């Protein structure tokens, strides 16, 4: 149960962290216009670092999502092989519900 809560919160946490990095990047860009030429390279380095961190976090988030999708597919495949008739029943029920909803429109 705790694992599900952590998984559902991870996109929100990643989004908040990414938002913080992007806010810092925007601030740095605004500062870059006001800084003297000798400070421009330091601001540029900080900006590159912030953007690199954002890219790393997005890549890690994408990897996490891919891993969870693979695990879910594996568990589903194992369940269908272990319980084929139940899987057929669930598929038929879902098809009926989708058909009924589509017929209403």
From TrEMBL:
Alphabetical UniProt keywords: Membrane, Transmembrane, Transmembrane helix
GO molecular-function terms, A-Z: ribosome binding
Annotated transmembrane regions: 85-103
Entry superkingdom: Bacteria
One Pfam assignment: DUF883_C
Keyword RNA-binding assigned: no
PANTHER family (UniProt xref): INNER MEMBRANE PROTEIN (PTHR35893:SF3), INNER MEMBRANE PROTEIN-RELATED (PTHR35893)
The name this protein goes by in its record: DUF883 family protein
Protein species of origin: Aquabacterium soli
């Amino acid at each position: 149960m705790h694992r599900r809560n952590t998984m559902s919160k991870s996109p929100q946490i990643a989004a908040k962290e990414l938002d913080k990095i992007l806010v810092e990047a925007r601030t740095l860009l605004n500062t870059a216009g006001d800084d003297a030429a000798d400070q421009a390279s330091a601001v540029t380095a900080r900006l590159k670092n912030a953007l690199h961190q954002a890219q790393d976090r997005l890549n890690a988030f994408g990897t996490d999502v891919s891993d969870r999708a693979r695990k879910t597919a594996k568990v589903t495949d194992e369940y269908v092989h272990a319980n084929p008739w139940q899987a057929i029943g669930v598929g038929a029920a879902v098809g009926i519900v989708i058909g009924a909803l589509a017929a209403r429109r």
